[in-house]
Amino acid sequence: MTIKIANGAGFLGDNIDAPRLLVESAQVDYLTLEYLAELTMSILARQREKNPEAGYAVDFLDVLKSLLPALKAQPQLKIVTNAGGVNPLACTAAVGKILHAAGLSETQIGVITGDNLLPRLDELRAVGCDFKNLDTGQPLEEISQSVVSANAYLGAQPIAETLAGGARIVITGRVADASLTVGPAMHQLQRRWDDWNFLAGISVAGHLIECGAQVTGGLYRHWQNLDLANVGYPIAEINDDGSCVITKPSGTGGAVNRNTVIEQLVYEIGDPAHYLTPDVDVDFTTIEVDQAGTDRVIVCGATGRPAPTSYKVSLAYQAGFIANGQLLVYGADCIAKAQACGKMILQRVERANFKLQETLIECLGTGDGVPVHGSGVKESARKEVLLRVSVRDDCRDAVERFTKEFAPLITSGPPGVAGYATGRPQVRPVFAYWPTLVPKTFVTPTVCIKAAGKWNAIR
What we know:
- By secondary structure, this protein is α+β, with helices and mostly antiparallel strands.
- It has 2 domains: 2-115 and 153-308, no CATH class; 316-433, Alpha-Beta Plaits, CATH 3.30.70.
- Helix content is 29%, strand content 25%.
- The chain is built from 13 helices and 19 strands.
- It has helices spanning 18-25, 38-50, 59-73, 88-101, 121-126, 157-164, 179-189, 196-209, 258-265, 334-351, 396-403, 409-412, 452-456; strands at residues 2-7, 30-33, 78-81, 108-113, 147-152, 169-172, 235-239, 244-247, 275-276, 281-283, 288-293, 296-300, 303-305, 310-330, 358-364, 384-393, 417-418, 428-439, 446-451.
- It has a 10-stranded mixed beta sheet, sandwiched between helices. Strands 5, 14, 15, 16, 17 and 18 form a 6-stranded antiparallel beta sheet that branches.
- α6 packs across α7 (179-189) and α7 (179-189) crosses α8 (196-209).
- The two termini are 42 Å apart.
């Protein structure tokens, strides 16, 4: 038995037409949509602070509207997404309204909650969860008053449970990216949750398609030969032995070859012998990758061990404020002028009695943006550079003052400065990442399944 699981989004902000184009050009059993990253969770948490009905990936609502014809024409098609962000219930209610208005009131929608640990931090710390920083060993007490989000990376079991309960659309909060694929595969292929090699194989499939077009030609080193304007998004054809074929819809741009697959395979994996997910500990060193035809690559041989006993937690805290501004500086001495302008800005902020904690002056176009890959153009040959000055400080007033020092360069700086008509830089809060763990015994995922018409009634 083989099932087809496609992924039409690799992050919040991905191509909004990709999911529709994918299901219009290929028949699949499941469409996954992956929207969340650590920074995204922080942004969504701030949105919910301002509006209790916000905090989820609103892009999904537009995507869902575009998918309504496919949902009506393809009865086998199911959707699994983490678009719920930090507010899965609000997302589900909004989805229910769209389906109800489209005449799909009987469509079963399942929502998974339980990943949000923010309201429980004090309770969990009281019973022994120290939430120490995995990178530094620091205790959470040092930043506990500034925490804005804390979410456990749930696994695939609640997704499989929701599908088994009859849900056609599954909406989650924070789950491990690969689990969006693992859940449907485990439900459909009916394997044991301690079949570690099988779980390893389908986790690799999920990892390969989780970033959308990255496995079908996006970021590929030989991109010049590809049609990326019409890049096809990935499909994993998962076999009941845990192997898979990575492909894409015929007639679409991009490419699926051994190199595009391997480049994605080693993306964000840490130790290749221990790729840890909530579902399994995967050994990537046993994997075999072979071309199986045009735009078809077979991946097999992954081996697995028992899953970790803890969930990874994505915790974010506010760490002051940031702003950055840019100016175009031109002329034969543009680099020297740009550097001088940057120093002037910071000197004037200090003159106003603000000592900024962190500052950075960059001359983009000289190699400052990617220092190890300078362009190699001689300074005398440069006619323009882009000056970018960035600052961070715990004091918002200090950063606000910084934003007011760009425009004065119009008449009080050197000649050859442009780009100031865009207005003052924006002051933004900084969200710092705090990687940590929580024992699985302290987290209980919750599943709720209702018809779209009933979710529609929720306010």
